[in-house]
Structures are given as C-alpha cells and as structure tokens.
Amino acid sequence: MQPSLWLALAGAGVLISFTPGAGAINTMSNSLNSGFRRSIWGILGQQAALVVHIVIVALGVGVLVASSPVAFNVIRYAGAAYLVFLGIQQFRHKPDLDQEKAAELRNEPASSMFRRGLWVNLLNPKAIVFFLAFMPQFIRPENPLVPQYLVLSATVIVIDILVMWFFFAAAATTFQRFTHDARGQRILNRTFGVLFMAVGVMLALIH
Fold first, then answer.
1. Which of 64, 94, 103, 206 would you call most buried, defined as having the most Cβ atoms within 10 angstroms of its Cβ?
2. pTM of the entire structure?
3. The dihedral formed by the CA atoms of 39, 83, 90 and 160, expressed in degrees to the nearest 10
4. Cβ distance 75 to 123 under 8 Å?
5. Transmembrane ranges (predicted)?
C-alpha cells in the first residue's frame, strides 16, 4: 500500500473510531465497572468481531448479506435486541456499596468481558455494509490482495484499540468519583443503560 493511501486510511480509521457507538459505550462501561486496565478485554472482543466483519467482506459474503433483506434484518434485529438487553440490565443494576461485591464486579472474568465485546460488535450488520463501502477505497485489485487486506485490517484494529482504550476507557475513569455513593452509582447505571438501549433502538430503526 502506497504511503499516501495508507495515511488516508489511517485518517479515516481515526474518524471512524472516534464516532460514538455501541463499542464506545461498552468500553466506557467496562472501564467504569472493572477498571481501565481490565477494560482491554472487552476492547479485544470488539476487535475480534471487527476481524470477522473484514473477513466476511473480503470473501464476498458481505455482498450477499447486504443484498438480502431477510439476512440483514435478522442480524440487525438480533444486534438491536442484544444492546437493549444489555441496557436494561445496566439500567436495573442496583447500587452496591458492599466492598466485597464491588471487588467481585471489578474482577469479572476476562472471558466474559471479551464475549460481551465480541457480540456487541458482531451483531451489527451495518458494519458489514460500511466495510463494503469503505474497503474498496483502499484496495487496488491489480496488486496482491492478501497483503493489502492485512495492512488495512492491522491499521484499523490498532487505531481502534488505541482510541477505545486511551480515549473512551480513560474518559470513563473521570466518572469514578460517582461510584462511591448510591445516588452516583444509580445515575451512572441509568445513564449507560439508556445509552445502550438508545443505540439498540437506533440500530433497529435507522435504515
């Protein structure tokens, strides 16, 4: 990939990563509940889903999904329902000032955080449609395809990890002061719950 084309790709990747969405909300929620360092597991789960989307598009299956209203809607509504489910769980989560239980929450298994991040991004068919429009801009069919896809994937994933961890996860740490009393916890739980549900509803309604 030519340096000028790669710079354009990197710039586009930064803009995409900074666009708030379900992944950003999930990252901030993980950082708030489990700490900045451990939030990386949810971010890695989101990147695994990103790899799946890229592979699907690269293999041409993305065209099939994007052109099939039934397949697209099944995935879209499943993703929306999952986000709303996460939002309801977060919204209904009761404030907990018990230090032992708080420690348990902060020690949520990495595998659980990874799986949640995976499903949050995986059940978003709009990502497939987006990559269908995005990837061809940076792929030159006259050149070997595999190296180009590898460069594109690595660039997008590294940028997304950096933005998610050092911007969204770090930003969530500023809310830590609200977790020391029941009222603050209730406000944060309901705020993130509403955000999750809002993204889910938007995913279901916006075409």
1. 64
2. 0.76
3. 20
4. yes
5. 48-66, 118-139, 151-175, 187-206
